[in-house]
């Protein structure tokens, strides 16, 4: 079997790290399997999956939005448009018929950028959101935002001196993809305060200058807003300042805006970078990513999303088309999901009432859970949890006793990874340790999602573990 | 807009070529748009899409298989499992319920390798096909076969002296992906005779030795069986000989077997490379790709497929898992499509009769059309068309007059591209010219699919064009 041993492989592969589905997640899957046997011998009776933003996962409580599922179901089996007249609301049938006319069978490849009609609807959604025109020919439907980010990083890394500015902590898709393409991650640090996590233009500029000093070209600035894992929401002023920085240094702006509809407080307000770039009449090249996996849609399994290119030359758009054409097209089920996300039922339509009720419930549950969990975690000794006005996560900081640090070192683990493994082993709660996202030297955090049903029992368990852990190593 | 101009991009991107969705396809889309206006001024009234194996495309006549669509429809909207009892057959409801129990909501991310239950079903399908065990943990569900090929080529290209043996003519996914990852395509030439296209081990070994002489490491041998674009089907002896060659030179075997169920003649028989490797008790590392986009399923838009790893070390499988985990999971709709492909209704089940009728009809239509078209094209002056016992295409050779070659040169095009552009401009028939697949120097071919309905009228049109073209340049 020598011909396909790891030693013969692309060495960049070995550098790829993606903690969200790494050791902790794999171990939790094993525990889940073990729990199927009654004599499992584990100190818990269920695994609580808090490691990944997967709202419709078994055991979590976010149901799919009915309207989008009805439309998808009708398109899977078009005879239902007649035979299901007593089952489906008329607006779902009308939408399905409209899409069927445009797409034909959902079993056919579409245009590689996505169905033109759906791209036009995305453009209208963007125009309504921002008040500026959007060009459907500069929109690419993708298999979730991840596929788009991968494509863009592949484009931007032109040699081994190409870097991309990434927030620390960051969603590890960025470092993983940079490792895959041999690009250099240029970390800028987010600032953690009691009021939340902040992004400062000065800090980003420091990272830009450091890169230039070291002979590295900062090709792009990746910003996740609302933030993952930190849940921060940028202010308009912060965004304007960051756009000007990109202009100053001729840097492409990669705006990961997949959590744009997950806003939990009245103080926080999402503004798209598209709007800021247009307001400023800036010529900064911007790629803005969106997804159906998050928000209230939560349709991770469909793999749907899009990115919009703003101030990107036509020749570059043509090259993007060429590259996506090799993969033929994004899954049509995901494309339909995008259509339903950007064109939800509106007031007066038969499905509006239910859609409103479903989305209100999801928004409310997320906001309440996020607030509740942050408060509870904040009250624990050795833990501080900055508020998270956006996205789906908390990223509490651990202040661990010396003995715990020593035990972690002994075990060959970072302190937070040591903590997270113990948490999983003892309670079945699966989180991701801060080392998977990056953090300042010497710090320890973990990320947990705010998606789990039965949040009180879950936080009780976590608290109990934490107090015992602190006591054990005090 | 300077910051994102083509000159600043990864230079490998510019080398990527994918003719199947290239200039001809883009032009055909423009014609399709123009035809929506009554005063379009074009010399034809419809575009005939013969450039891509997309069976369910508008205007072609391959319908989806009912059973798979019913299952998918039920999983999109689970309340139908009750409310649709009078609409859906009981076995489709039972299958949907079984999958729902295993998967939960299809809106959730699954295991990154694909739903474990579906992988077990794939393993059983492989075991039944080949008579050898298959390990679900060494199976990866993918977004069509293309995503799997991309992943493997990314793995195999370890430096700028890594090459992959590819057939010429080839499906351009291979050269496109090699260009993306900076690998070296090592062409071996298929032999065109009146009896069909052949693959000779001697020719592959010539290419291996040439590479080694030039300091290039042949990392893998890509074989497309049944062939694309040439429609050949390897004999068992040819396959055994190729496996031994891989053994001799320690080469990974990439077996693209997506057309395994598209066999049109009684003489031709598909044998999987998995079976050959097992029969020979060979230790060759084999990756075998399959897809729901072709065969009788034809569900391109779902983006479903899988690959099986045979004789691949566990450590390498773990690295493959790590890489796919960054993309989270293949679309669940595609995974369900794979389940229905490997577990079709069986005799005695309610849906079996319809499934049998649908698949028989598709097999028969493809076989008849392929034979009919090859005969008609073969009778033309300046064209010869080898038989195509497998896959979905014909790859006729053009023997063009000197004046046509001169006109092509004048136009700055290869002869076959010049021909294909003229064909599209004058008849609306979109094919792909041979230069998109590669061919021996000085030759000219084109690929056309055998999927188009109304094949007589279509071939009449093609014939008329061809005779006029030949006459014009005689």
From TrEMBL, chains A, B:
One of its GO terms (biological process) is L-alanine catabolic process. Transmembrane segments: none annotated. InterPro entries: ALAT1/2-like, Aminotransferase_I/II_large, PyrdxlP-dep_Trfase, PyrdxlP-dep_Trfase_major, PyrdxlP-dep_Trfase_small. Homodimer. Keywords: Aminotransferase, Pyridoxal phosphate, Transferase. One of its GO terms (molecular function) is pyridoxal phosphate binding. Residues 85-462 form the Aminotransferase class I/classII large domain. Belongs to the class-I pyridoxal-phosphate-dependent aminotransferase family. Alanine aminotransferase subfamily. Pfam families: Aminotran_1_2 (PF00155). Its cofactor is pyridoxal 5'-phosphate. The keyword Nucleus does not apply. This is Glutamate pyruvate transaminase.
């Amino acid at each position: 079997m020598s011909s396909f041993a790891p030693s013969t492989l692309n060495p960049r592969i070995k550098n790829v790290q993606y903690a969200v589905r790494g050791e902790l997640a794999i171990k939790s899957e094993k525990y889940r399997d073990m729990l199927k046997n009654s004599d499992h011998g584990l100190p818990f009776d269920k695994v609580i999956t808090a490691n990944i933003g997967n709202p419709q996962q078994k055991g979590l409580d976010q149901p799919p939005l009915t309207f989008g599922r009805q439309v998808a179901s009708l398109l899977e089996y078009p005879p239902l448009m007649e035979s299901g007249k007593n089952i489906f609301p008329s607006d779902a049938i009308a939408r399905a018929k409209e899409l069927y006319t445009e797409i034909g069978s959902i079993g056919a490849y579409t245009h590689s950028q996505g169905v033109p009609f759906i791209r036009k609807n995305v453009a209208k959604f963007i125009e309504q959101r921002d008040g500026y025109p959007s060009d459907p020919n500069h929109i690419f439907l993708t298999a979730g935002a991840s596929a788009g980010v991968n494509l863009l990083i592949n484009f931007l890394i032109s040699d081994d001196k190409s870097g991309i500015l990434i927030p620390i902590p960051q969603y590890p898709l960025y470092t993983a993809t940079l490792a895959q393409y041999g690009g250099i991650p240029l970390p800028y640090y987010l600032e953690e305060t009691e009021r939340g996590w902040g992004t400062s233009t000065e800090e980003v500029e420091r990272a830009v200058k450091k890169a230039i000093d070291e002979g590295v070209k900062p090709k792009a600035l990746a910003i996740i807003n609302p933030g993952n894992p930190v849940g921060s929401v940028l202010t308009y002023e912060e965004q304007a300042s960051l756009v000007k920085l990109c202009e100053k240094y001729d840097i492409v702006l990669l705006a990961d805006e997949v959590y744009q509809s997950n806003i939990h407080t009245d103080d926080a307000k999402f503004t798209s970078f598209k709007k800021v770039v247009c307001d400023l009449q800036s010529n900064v090249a911007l790629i803005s990513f969106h997804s159906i996996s998050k928000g209230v849609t939560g349709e991770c399994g469909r793999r749907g999303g899009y990115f919009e290119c703003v101030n990107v030359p036509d020749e570059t758009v043509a090259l993007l088309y060429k590259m996506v054409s090799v993969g033929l097209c994004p899954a049509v089920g995901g494309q339909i999901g995008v259509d339903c996300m950007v064109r939800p039922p509106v007031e007066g339509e038969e499905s509006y009432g239910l859609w409103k009720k479903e989305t209100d419930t999801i928004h409310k549950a997320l906001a309440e859970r996020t607030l509740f969990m942050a408060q509870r975690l904040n009250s624990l000794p050795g833990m501080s949890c900055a508020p998270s006005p956006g996205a789906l996560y908390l990223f509490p900081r651990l202040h661990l006793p010396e003995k715990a640090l020593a035990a972690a070192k002994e075990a060959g683990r970072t302190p937070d990874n040591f903590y997270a493994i113990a948490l999983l082993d003892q309670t079945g709660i699966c989180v991701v340790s801060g080392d998977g996202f990056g953090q300042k030297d010497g710090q320890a955090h973990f990320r947990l999602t705010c998606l789990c049903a039965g949040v009180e029992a879950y936080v009780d368990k976590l608290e109990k573990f934490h107090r015992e852990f602190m006591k054990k190593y005090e």
